[in-house]
């Protein structure tokens, strides 16, 4: 019998017992409602043995530095309850992000430099008859892009890398996905705030790239997905305004520092708020003119103030 791509399941759990130690995620507690999943099960290289042979022909090779990479998206919705982390919280934590829960009030996510958490991923593809080929990825860390487009569903877009293990055939699991709530379309009603330096703008699209540089460090005595750097970036396409209101040319030239805030969602426990306390604008490289209306494709660099404070996500 064939295996069906549509029968896949994705389970994710933070490694609490040490790096690369399997925390054994379950379908009941750790399932992820994912979109556009792509698995690269054996990234790495093939090392040619370059054997001298009596006849012409290919030389055998050996796989080296093998690791697994998974890309997918998750709808950006809240948990629906104040002080309750969203079901995709472990994925954010695996992107070098700290989670702080204030009971019955809010959940905050901020970047960290030292001691980033790692997680385990179980990715299984089923045959529809109760069997599945399961890929177990341990020591997984990654990066994420948040994307919001007007009249679209906001998304978290993850790229996760981790240690390779040989897949096995297991019994298919039944995932519990009730923790993933329905998202809100980005609109005037559902996305009440987008400001640059306190000035409100008409927003077409917004993109925040965490820019986490995860590299596989495959050495003798150590194999680890290591966070070696970060370089956050912001993009926002906005309707152009009078230069007296906001001058993107002077802002880029003078490197004027401004705060940026995006608020999406309405109602207690349903709001996602992204704050960037200090940003500078990059060069404006051109105009856009959808519907014959002038728009600015602006790019910003979120900066540190006291460190690990270049951005904050508050779910409230």
What this model shows, in words?
The protein has one domain (5-44, 67-173, 182-315). It contains two helices and 19 strands. The chain has helices spanning 89-93, 248-254, and strands spanning 9-14, 35-48, 61-75, 97-102, 106-111, 119-126, 131-149, 155-163, 168-171, 193-196, 199-200, 203-209, 212-219, 222-230, 233-239, 258-264, 272-281, 295-302, 312-315. The strands form two sheets. It has a 17-stranded antiparallel β-sheet that branches. Strands 13-14 form a two-stranded antiparallel sheet. It is globular and about 75 Å long. It starts with 8 loop residues before the first strand and ends with a strand.
Total number of strands:
19
Mean pLDDT: 97
Question: Which class of secondary structure composition applies to the elements?
Answer: mainly beta
Shape: globular
Total domain units: 1
Stretches where pLDDT falls below 50 for ≥5 residues?
Answer: none
Main sheet?
A: 17 strands, antiparallel
| Share of β-strand residues | over 45%
Helix content: under 10%
Order of helices and strands: EEEHEEEEEEEEEEEEHEEEE
Annotation keywords:
4% helix; 316 residues; mainly beta; two-stranded antiparallel sheet
Short note summarizing the structure:
The protein has one domain (5-44, 67-173, 182-315). It is built from two helices and 19 strands. The protein has helices at residues 89-93, 248-254; strands spanning 9-14, 35-48, 61-75, 97-102, 106-111, 119-126, 131-149, 155-163, 168-171, 193-196, 199-200, 203-209, 212-219, 222-230, 233-239, 258-264, 272-281, 295-302, 312-315.
């Amino acid at each position: 019998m064939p295996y069906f791509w549509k029968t896949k399941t994705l389970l994710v759990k933070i490694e609490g017992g040490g790096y690369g130690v399997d925390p054994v995620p379950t379908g009941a507690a750790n399932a992820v409602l994912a979109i556009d999943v792509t698995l690269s099960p054996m990234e790495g290289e093939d090392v040619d043995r370059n054997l001298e042979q009596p006849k012409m022909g290919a030389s055998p090779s050996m796989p080296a530095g093998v690791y697994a990479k998974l890309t997918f998206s998750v709808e950006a919705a809240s948990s629906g309850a104040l002080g309750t982390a969203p079901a995709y919280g472990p994925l954010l934590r695996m992107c070098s992000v700290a989670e702080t829960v204030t009971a019955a009030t809010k959940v905050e996510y901020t970047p960290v430099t030292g001691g980033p958490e790692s997680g385990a991923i179980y990715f299984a593809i089923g045959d529809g008859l109760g069997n599945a080929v399961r890929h177990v990825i341990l020591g997984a860390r990654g990066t994420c892009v948040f994307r919001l487009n007007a009249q679209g569903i906001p998304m978290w877009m993850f790229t996760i890398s981790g240690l390779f293990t040989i897949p096995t055939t297991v019994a298919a699991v039944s995932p519990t996905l009730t923790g993933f709530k329905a998202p809100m379309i980005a609109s005037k009603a559902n996305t009440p705030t987008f400001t640059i330096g306190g000035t409100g703008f008409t927003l077409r699209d917004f993109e925040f790239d965490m820019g986490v540089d995860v590299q596989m460090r495959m050495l003798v005595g150590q194999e680890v997905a290591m966070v070696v750097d970060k370089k956050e970036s912001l993009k926002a396409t906005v309707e152009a305004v009078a230069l007296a209101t906001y001058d993107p040319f002077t802002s880029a030239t003078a490197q004027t520092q401004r705060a940026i805030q995006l608020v999406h969602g309405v109602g207690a426990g349903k709001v996602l708020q992204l704050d960037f306390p200090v940003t500078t604008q990059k060069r404006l490289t051109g105009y856009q003119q959808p519907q014959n209306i002038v728009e600015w494709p602006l790019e910003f660099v979120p900066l540190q103030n006291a460190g690990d404070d270049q951005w904050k996500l508050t779910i409230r």
